[in-house]
Design brief:
Blueprint lengths: L1 H18 L18 E3 L5 E4 L18 H11 L11 H14 L9 H10 L5 H17 L2 H11 L9 H9 L8 H9 L13 H17 L5 H9 L14 H14 L4 E4 L3 H18 L6 E8 L5 E5 L19 E2 L6 H10 L7 E4 L4 E3 L2 E3 L10 E4 H6 L3 H11 L1 H10 L9 H4 L10 E2 H12 L3 E2 L5 E5 L15 E2 L3 H11 L2 H8 L10 E6 L5 E7 L3 E8 L12 H16 L16 E6 L15 E6 L11 E7 L5 E7 L6 H6 L10 E3 L3 H4 L7 E4 L5 E2 L11 E7 L5 E7 L2 E5 L5 E4 L3 E11 L2 E4 L3 E5 L1
Parallel strand pairs: 1-3, 24-31
Antiparallel strand pairs: 1-2, 3-13, 4-5, 4-17, 6-11, 7-10, 8-9, 12-14, 15-16, 16-17, 18-19, 20-21, 20-22, 23-25, 25-28, 26-27, 26-29, 29-30, 29-31
Helix pairs in contact: 2-8, 2-9, 4-5, 4-6, 8-9, 9-10, 12-21, 13-15, 13-19
């Protein structure tokens, strides 16, 4: 009987001994579970890190990518005999037992680094039985891994507080640097934390963490791991840790970039297109402007910046403050659906240009009454006025509503709806009949991101490409997993139409009747505003050759703003963002918009949009797509002969508008030819030579410019634009009678100087000197 018991015991002991040589399951120690999903900006700056399988944040690093001082500090404080024991340290266990008996409670476990790896993998609760199992597994782990491999496992699995798993996550979170770049003092600081991550939380109890750091350094000195001089330097080095909010940047961007696919497909790294320093500056600008707009009941806003050449979203500010619960800061204004108002109009006019209209085509801005099965539709202009015959350039630049609706009647609501969808506006899911004629005035809800990208298609010569928010993404092994496949580009407009829209939207002279001298930049910039009729949404969209920018301001709760226009609301933010993008230190001045080869410039009468007649008192140069330039002479300016005072015959030019404008002309008290007058030169007007004179179109006589005391003088300029006959030669710009430079048909820039200045053009036609009338401007 005793022999059988002895044999049984011997067998059990033999089996236990043999089991020590059985390896643990290798998959239990895989690296993948440690990796958390990290989202960074285009330059690698961490925006957000999501929890891993261990409900923490971690990134696996090999020992050669960790500071050697960190490895030494960890061994010194956690397991000084690490390289000599077999996985369990009897001396440490004896010491721990004595401490626990003296304290009458469990204060020390005497665990080796190997045992702690086992605990971090299998999550043993502290108990005597689990301690035995932990020791048994530690002995087995020592048989299957080298000491360095076990140390690497520990340093990548140890808890460092604040849901940080492993030294790489801790180094990045607390110090903003990788584990290999840690100093001795920083290494000792991190080595101190796994002992009690909650108690030693640096964000709540920095003094306790520093006290244990000093203990770590003393242990290193006592074990001859560092000398006295190194110890003194490390103790005296200040420890500064990052703010806990530093790893929660651009929350709206992160949510959009990650989405459900990245969270469920093993992605461990996502690099976004966002330039976070730029994003932060734009957010500061937005907050500053909203503070001044608060009195107009404007509480929030959103900004999107897209790089034209790549389609990459450089900045996406979803709200002024994500953490502002009072004003619904967690709502993403870049993707929320809102009515864009007049910001839709360029796409209506683009269709008209495709159908044969030109920028000089006359449109009727007079009362319009449309009756259909939905009832009466009577559009009104923003300024509640009618402007009579207006060229398309003026109608679009000044954002008149009635000409836009008349143009929509010409191109068709269905065609506009399909074109907007082609431009990537995915929210337009209803039928054309549902939207009706209000579609061109922005009654359909769109997102700021979609509309900004639609404008980017105009900036890119009519080619649409998807707005990209993700540059790259990969799994733990580094294998690329594309969570944001690039869609193929396609045409929205031809490049000639896109150029004409760009040219109109960047024309400060054309928009002056409605917007004055707003949106003055030291570079070419296309811009369009939009405000809904109920003042709930205010937009400004635009682009240069480099960037497209969209700005929305309003209230996420849908309440109305008070007295906010495209200029006073989103427009000021747009202007500041454009200056930030194109001025040092962020960027440089953009290039000018270049006309395609097929475009041509022709002098026209500004009143009729036709070729000037001898009776036209002014001409302007207009861009035309080949085949759309006018061939008829102006028939608005008509010369009549009648008997004047003292019986003398008088020749005088009158403006005679088409019959549809008769009521408007009467309301404007336009002078008509006397009833007894006779029209002269009627036939000659059709074949008369083109008016050949120089005319300064911009700036206007009497314009006032103010120097900005905060902007460098070399960036404070005014563009001189003129109508120049094709046969004119040697055209010069004179400022105060002195020759400035040769005139370029695209215009020339002049640096503003304080005082009053006279501008004039001089040139020659057929060896005959010609001059323009003087224009006087004032600079304060």
């Amino acid at each position: 009987m005793i022999g059988r018991i002895g044999v049984t015991i011997a067998v059990v002991v033999l089996l236990l001994f043999a089991s020590v040589f059985l390896p643990l399951p290798g998959e239990d120690f895989r690296k993948e579970g440690i990796h958390s999903l990290r989202v960074v900006d285009r330059n690698g700056l961490l925006l957000r890190e999501f929890l891993n399988d261990e409900q923490g944040r971690g990134q696996w690093r090999s020992l050669d990518r960790m500071a050697p001082s960190l490895q030494r500090a960890t061994i010194a404080i956690e397991d000084r005999r690490f390289y000599s024991h077999v996985g369990v340290d009897p001396l440490a266990l004896l010491r721990a037992t004595v401490e626990n008996v003296k304290s009458m409670q469990f204060v020390s476990g005497g665990s080796t680094l190997t045992q702690q790896v086992i605990r971090n993998v299998y999550h043993h609760q502290r108990s005597v039985s689990n301690k035995v199992i932990e020791a048994w597994r530690a002995l087995r782990l020592e048989r299957m891994m080298s000491k360095d491999a076990i140390l690497e496992q520990y340093l990548n699995r140890a808890p460092y507080g604040n849901q940080l798993i492993g030294v790489e996550a801790a180094a990045q979170h607390y110090f903003g640097k990788p584990a290999h770049a840690l100093s001795l003092a920083e290494s000792a600081f991190l080595a101190a934390l796994p002992n009690a991550p909650s108690t030693l939380n640096p964000h709540r109890n920095l003094d306790a963490a520093l006290s244990r750091q000093h203990l770590v350094l003393r242990r290193m000195r006592e074990q001859d791991l560092i000398g006295d001089e190194e110890y003194d330097r490390a103790v005296s080095q200040p420890i500064t840790i990052n703010s806990p909010e530093a790893d929660f940047r651009a929350p709206h961007v992160v949510a959009m970039a990650v989405g459900s696919r990245a969270m469920s497909s093993g992605i461990s790294f996502v690099q976004t297109t966002i330039d976070y320093p730029l994003q932060q500056n734009i957010q500061f600008l937005l907050r500053g402007h909203l503070a001044t707009l608060a009195k107009r009941n404007v509480t929030n806003g959103s900004v999107v910046v897209i790089e034209n050449a790549t389609g990459e979203v450089c900045a996406l500010v979803g709200s002024a403050n994500y953490f502002d619960e009072q004003h619904n800061g967690q709502v993403n204004g870049a993707t929320a659906l809102r009515q864009p108002g007049s910001a839709i109009k360029p796409f209506t006019y683009g269709l008209a240009l495709e159908a044969g209209y030109s920028a000089a085509t006359l449109l009727a801005d007079i009362p319009l009454h449309i009756t259909d099965d939905k009832g009466d539709y009577i559009p009104e202009n923003y300024d509640k006025r009618y402007h009579g015959p207006v060229r398309m350039r003026t109608a679009l630049a000044c954002s008149y509503n009635i000409p836009a609706v008349r143009t929509l009647q010409f191109v068709g609501t269905e065609n506009l709806l399909q074109r907007l969808r082609l431009a990537g506006i995915s929210s337009l899911t209803r039928t054309a009949d549902y939207y009706g004629f209000g579609l061109t005035l922005g009654n359909a809800e769109v997102s700021l991101l979609d509309l900004t990208n639609a404008y980017a298609s105009i900036a890119n010569g009519g080619m649409w490409r998807p707005a990209r928010l993700v540059l790259s993404s990969h799994d733990v092994s580094g294998e690329t997993i594309d969570i944001d496949p690039v869609q193929p580009a396609h045409g929205v407009f031809g490049e000639n139409v896109a150029f004409l829209l760009t040219n109109i939207l960047s024309d400060p002279v054309a928009r002056r009747p409605a917007f004055g001298n707003a949106f003055h930049f030291p570079f070419q910039c296309a811009v369009k505003t939009g405000t809904t009729k109920d003042y709930r949404d205010n937009w400004t969209m635009g682009f240069t050759t480099e960037y497209t920018v969209g700005v929305w301001v309003g209230n996420f709760d849908g309440s109305e703003m008070r007295g906010v226009s495209g200029i006073t609301g989103a427009g000021q933010i747009f202007a500041d963002v454009m200056m930030l993008l194109h001025m040092p230190p962020h960027g440089n001045l953009p290039g000018e918009f270049v006309a395609p080869r097929e475009m041509m410039r022709v002098a026209v009468c500004p009143r009729s949009g036709k070729l000037p007649s001898p009776d036209c008192n002014k001409s302007i140069e207009e861009w035309f797509i080949g085949g759309t330039a006018p061939v008829e002479r102006c028939d608005v300016h008509q010369r009549y002969r009648f008997q004047g005072e003292a019986g003398r015959m008088v020749d005088r030019v009158f403006e005679v508008l088409p019959a549809e404008f008769s009521e408007w002309a009467s309301q404007q008290q336009m002078e008509k030819p006397p009833s007894a007058s006779v029209r002269v030169n009627k036939k000659e007007n059709k074949t008369a030579d083109r008016v050949e004179r120089l005319t300064i179109l911009s700036p206007n006589d009497g314009d006032l410019f103010k120097l900005d005391p905060t902007l460098r003088r070399e960036y404070q300029t005014v563009k001189i634009v003129a109508a120049v006959p094709e046969r004119a030669a040697s055209v010069k710009v004179l400022v105060d009678g002195e020759e400035l430079l040769e005139y370029d048909r695209k215009g020339v820039w002049w640096h503003l100087k304080q005082g009053s200045h006279n501008l004039q053009l001089v040139g020659m036609i057929r060896n005959r000197n010609i001059t323009s009338e003087q224009v006087t401007i004032h600079v304060k």
